[in-house]
Specification:
The chain is α+β, with helices and mostly antiparallel strands and 223 residues long. The chain has helices at residues 3-15, 26-29, 74-85, 91-110, 114-120, 123-139, and strands spanning 57-59, 67-70, 142-161, 164-180, 186-189, 195-206, 215-221. It has 6 helices and 7 strands. The strands form 2 sheets. Strands 3, 4, 5, 6 and 7 form a 5-stranded antiparallel sheet that branches.
């Protein structure tokens, strides 16, 4: 199977959540990740970091003609290590898939869709999201949310540990989210205002596996 076929499969699977098979890597191995968080938790708004100077970048791996990272940077080296372990890896196509997966996961959480989340998340990450959903249900709270879009998504780190590739991304998104108590009183968010959310997520894949899917294995919010 060629690289393009694998990329196609990645997006088909991202579009049909029930076919995604995930397994945990990062959460159970590093011990340093922050616990899974509520994607809709109230947070401070901060300025978005400027895009890196493209004049200082060089092509990487299978990104034909694409300037993706600065030559000699840690990220550049990390991406090359992933490509060495998995020649099908294409950083630009990976980021497209990560953006799609981000929206699906955030909306599945807002809707309390446990089945979708279970297929998309590692065990530890799922437990954190499920606990937040259960807490809402116990309190009789209701969340109304609209995903406006992603203003920026960038790869922060890439590495290979053993046979598993790990890629960490930073996503800046815009959401409209309002949470109501069981009496229907607004207790968090706003039904019309757009809030900016900044997340750092880590995905992993066993490079020995024929399964082309990447798994969400770690999450944290950027303060």
């Amino acid at each position: 199977m060629g690289s393009n076929d694998i990329v196609t499969i990645f997006f088909l699977v991202a579009a049909v959540v029930i076919f995604i098979q995930l397994r945990n890597v990062l959460g159970r191995r590093t011990g340093n990740e922050k616990p899974p968080h509520d994607p809709y938790a109230r947070r401070e708004t901060a300025e978005v970091r400027p895009v890196a100077d493209k004049a200082a970048t060089v092509p990487v791996g299978r990104d034909a003609g694409d300037t993706f990272t600065a030559a000699g940077s840690d990220l550049n080296k990390g991406i090359r290590s992933v490509i060495d372990a998995d020649p099908s890896f294409n950083p630009s196509e990976f980021m497209k898939g990560a953006r799609a997966a981000y929206e699906m996961i955030v909306m599945a959480f807002a809707e309390g869709d446990r089945n979708s989340l279970k297929n998309l998340l590692s065990r530890e990450v799922y437990e954190g999201f499920e606990a937040a959903i259960k807490d809402r249900e116990v309190k009789g709270e209701r969340m109304n949310s609209t995903f406006v879009g992603i203003s920026k998504a960038e790869m922060l780190n890439a590495a290979v540990r053993g046979t598993e590739a790990l890629v960490t991304v930073r996503v800046v998104s815009q959401l409209i989210s309002a949470t109501y108590d069981k009496q229907g009183t607004l207790i968090d968010g706003h039904p019309e205002e757009v809030a900016e959310v900044k997340d750092i997520w880590t995905f992993a894949r066993d490079t020995r596996s024929r399964d082309p899917n990447w798994k969400l294995v770690g999450t944290e919010s950027e303060q």
